[in-house]
Every structure is written in structure tokens, then in C-alpha cells.
Amino acid sequence: MPGHTLHTVLKSLLVGTALWCATADAVIFNLNNSANPRINIRVGAGGSNITEVAFTVPAGQIGDNNPITASGSVRIQVQIRASGANPLTGFLTVDSLSHPLENTDPGSSSSIPFSEISWTARDGDIPSGTFQDEIDQDIVSFQSSQRYRDFHTFSYANSLLIESGTYEGHVIYTWAVP
Amino acid sequence: MGGSVKQYWLLLTTLMACNPVHAERLDDSLSTRQQFDVDLVWKERHNTENLDTRELNALIAQARDVEIRLNTAPYIGQRGRIYITLPLNIRGTADSSALRMSWTTNGLFSNGSLTAGNRVRLFEGEITERVMTDVFDITFEIDARQVYNNLRFEPIYDIELY
User: Fold this and answer.
1) ipTM beyond 0.85?
2) Percent of chain A scored above 70 by pLDDT?
3) DSSP calls for A14-34
4) B46, B65, B136, B150, best to mutate vs chain A, most A CBs in 10 Å
5) Are A98 and A172 spatial neighbours (Cβ–Cβ below 8 Å)?
6) Burial of A50 (0-12, 13-18, 19+ CB in 10 A)
7) Least CA distance to B25: which residue of chain A?
8) Per-residue pLDDT tens for B36-72?
9) Which CATH class is domain A38-176?
10) Which of A135, A111, A128, A112 is nearest to A73 (CA)?
11) Which residues contact residue B99 at a Cβ distance below 8 angstroms, ignoring those fewer than 6 apart?
12) Is A40 exposed, middle or buried (0-12, 13-18, 19+ CB in 10 A)?
């Protein structure tokens, strides 16, 4: 019976092909996602250095409302890395309240609030703003995974009539994932 | 009876269409290990300040001394080209094209690299061994932003005779 013979041959071929597909094992690779999220911040020179910004106000111009712009700019850079399995958001804040600008002359108790100082961003990635005399002033937030870098130029508003002298203080930037 | 024959032909044609024309899949089940578990970690862990976005998000995993044994017994005395293919759809990533596999060997097969969904030649010439064996050092690299889970896949080996 030719039809039956053809049927049997085809059936054998079919079984053989199916068997071949089933036995063609392959070496399997499992790539386990072990990339822990990482964040990084650099302000100014980076490392343990504290970058200084200085304003010089001539004696006859104290409090005349003509802003004084510091020379140079400060690099501010933040990074946040995480896999797509666990995307994160980082928040950049600044504390401009805890360590105000204080007159370093002996016996003086004068101070200047940091709200007298503002900054202009070169690129706008980390936007321009003014210190608000707050412990955790929000500046910007970013989602993973990116690196953002900008250069800020600082300006002293010079709106206060203050005792002459040298005033020093510092602000602290914090880059964190809640 | 005629209907059954037609159905078998259709099924057989469908099954054969699973493989490229004139290419036959090679069995690598003789390989000493059938599964490799490796960790994806950040490629750049230090001095990352000046990396671009691609470099910043690069993850790598390395598998060393991966012995691959291909059963080439049916092709002894014939000339063939052996290829490796990475499957197009890889579990654990939304964009398989983000995965690159590169390798070096001990010399029987060619060094090379490829991305998911693509095919690269490993060997060309006369098949003289019943089992062709080489040891691979493999590096996988993928963009972290495309990794949504652990990745799992199996490269496919096939041969074309000429």
C-alpha cells in the first residue's frame, strides 16, 4: 500500500526530526544581576578638600546692593547608578544653616546669612539658585543611571550693612537616595 | 490518508524551518559543564567621574575556561562552516541588543564577539574530529538600564556544509 508506506516514512522522519530538536542540548549561561546601586558626589576639588569661594567687598561699598561675583566656578557633579531592575532617584540638598558666615575677628559676633549668596549654573543641569538658610534645601533630583555635572559661579548680594572683617562659613552638599 | 500525509508534510516543513537553510544545529551536550552561573558587576568601579553614560552603565560578567564540545561526527571528511548565534530574545532584559558577548579561545575556533540575535563564524574548513573541542574565555557586557532580572540564555551552534 504505497500510501501507507509514504505515511510510515513521513511519520518516521517526523519522529526523527522532533527527537533531534529535543536532544540538541546547549550550554546555558545565567548572568546574575549583582550590580549594587552606587552614588557619588564631587563638589569642587573633590576628595577631602574643601573648595573655597571668596568675595572681596571694598570698604566703601559695603551694603550698597551691588553684587560681588566670585572669580572662577565650582564644579558640582553627581552620579547615580542602578540596574533597570531597581531604578533609583537621588536627591541633592544643601545645608546652608548649620555653619553661617561668621566674623573671624576676635571679639566679633557678627555673621552673614548664606541667603546673601546665590549661584548661576553654567549649563543648567544642576540649576541656578540661592541659599535659603535651611538644613536640607532641595536643589535637584535625578533618576538612575546618569551622571550630571555643572559649574556654578557664586555671587554675594551685598545687601547688608555689616561690620567690616573677614567672614567664614561653609555649606554642605548631600547627595542621597532615601 | 491524503489529508494525514499533507498534515505531516506541513508539520515537517514547519519544523525544518526552525533552522537556517542548509544549516544544521550542532549538539554541544558533550560539553563538560552544561550551566555557568556568573555575576554581572559594574565594569568601572573606580575613577568614574569622567565616564560617559555608556561606560557608566556598563555591566560585565566573565566566564573562564568554558569548554565547548561540538558533536561533528556526522560531518567527518566534509568541509563546513561552524557558527555561534545568540538568541534574539533573552530572558531578563527588555532590549537584548544591549547584550554583547565576546570571547577568546585556545585556537581551534576563532576569537570574536556578537550581539543578541546575531551569528558569527567560529570555524571554516574540513571537519576532521568527531568532537570539536575548544576552551573559551567569555566576557558578557550589557547596559545596566536594560537589566530587569537575572539573564538566562543558551548560545546555539550550527554548521553549514560547502
Assistant:
1) no
2) 85
3) HHHHHHHHHH----EEEEEE-
4) B150
5) yes
6) exposed
7) A24
8) 999 999 999 888 888 888 999 999 999 999 999 999 9
9) mainly beta
10) A128
11) B86, B90, B93, B115, B116, B140, B141, B142, B146, B151
12) middle
- Name the pairing type of β-strands B91-93 and A74-81: unpaired
B22-161 is a CATH 1.10.3470 domain: no
Q: Are A170 and A97 in contact (CB under 8 A)?
A: no
Cβ-defined contact of A81 to B42 (cutoff 8 Å)? yes
> Any idea where the domains of chain B sit in the sequence?
22-161
- Around A94, how many Cα atoms within 13 Å sit in the side-chain half-sphere? 20
Contact B35 A30 (CB under 8 A): yes
Q: What is d(CA B105, CA B67) in angstroms, rounded to the nearest whole number?
A: 9
Measured distance CA(A57)–CA(A64) in Å, rounded:
10
Mutate to test the interface with B, among A23, A33, A78, A143 (most CBs of B within 10 A): A33
**3-class secondary structure, B134:** strand
Q: Where are the domains of chain A?
A: 38-176
Three-class SS of residue B79? strand
* The one-letter amino acid at A37: P
Tell me the three cell numbers of residue A42: 564631587
Q: Could you give the CA distance from residue B93 to residue B59 in angstroms, rounded to a whole number?
A: 13
